[in-house]
Amino acid sequence: MSGDGQRLVQDLLDQLDLEPLEQRLFRGSSRDIGGKSVFGGQVAGQAMVAATRTVDPSQQAHSMHGYFLRPGDMQAAIVYEVDNIRDGKSFATRRVQAIQHGRPIFSMLASFHIEESGYTHQMTMPDVVGPEELASHDELRHAWVGELDRVPDSLKEAVGREIAIDMRPVEPWNLLAPDKRAPAQYVWFRAKDAVPKDQAVHRAVLTYASDFNLLTTSQMPHGVSFFTPGMQMASIDHALWFHGDLEVDDWLLYCMDSPGAQDSRGLSRGLIFARDGRLVASVAQEGLIRQRD
User: Fold this and answer.
1) Rounded CA gap, 148 and 143, in Å?
2) In angstroms, what CA-CA distances link 62 with 18, 52, 109, 116, 203?
3) Per the CB 3.0–4.6 Å rule, which of 25, 164, 246, 290 could disulfide with 12?
4) Is 29 a catalytic residue?
5) Does the global pTM surpass 0.90?
6) Quick check: 158 pLDDT over 90?
């Protein structure tokens, strides 16, 4: 992979490598990836790291449920406070508060579990075009900007921001000129460079990446996007379940749909499959999709 990819992934890993301040107290920094506030996936990923550092290494995260309470300030540090809710023989539970300026911006419960044998079943991975045959989201964004006659500098900057995750949609949806279509999409994704062989790190990076494209799915039937004038978008909550070990630096298929939207809120769901067809994670999220005058 490219040198830029290596730099971007290392920067993401540095973000997730929180600074310990005291027992069950950590501090993290933010990066501007083109939004108006801290990216929700970053806060969720850092909260997952904070929780993971307080449990036994034999236990891996199997689920998290989080609420985004306030927009994050990209210029200020985020403090993560972890409460030890329960330590059992096979399960452990942690509550994490992400705090800025003395107030919580994100609250999460995470559960950890030892590896056990048991009944196994899963849905079948959809048969779609492979990632090698698809254009990357970076390439698509630059092409979309080039198709516009006049583009504000602020929009160019927002669209041009590069991130550590390579995303390749099976049927691209132009966020700058959105059409109306059924609320479902498939996106291949992976880290742009190798990630250390630590399952806890891979699950933290997946937590980060799982926030991309999900809320967008609920906007597809309405032909609007984050860039539509007057559109106010924000993740309200986020739930993630891990079904097994995964490698986030190998291709994963994110299968998303939106069963409904109402009262300026859209519900989106996702299944994440490894390249070999294993279901490795499931996601659900409700988000604000408010159209202002």
Assistant:
1) 9
2) 21, 11, 11, 12, 9
3) 164
4) no
5) yes
6) no
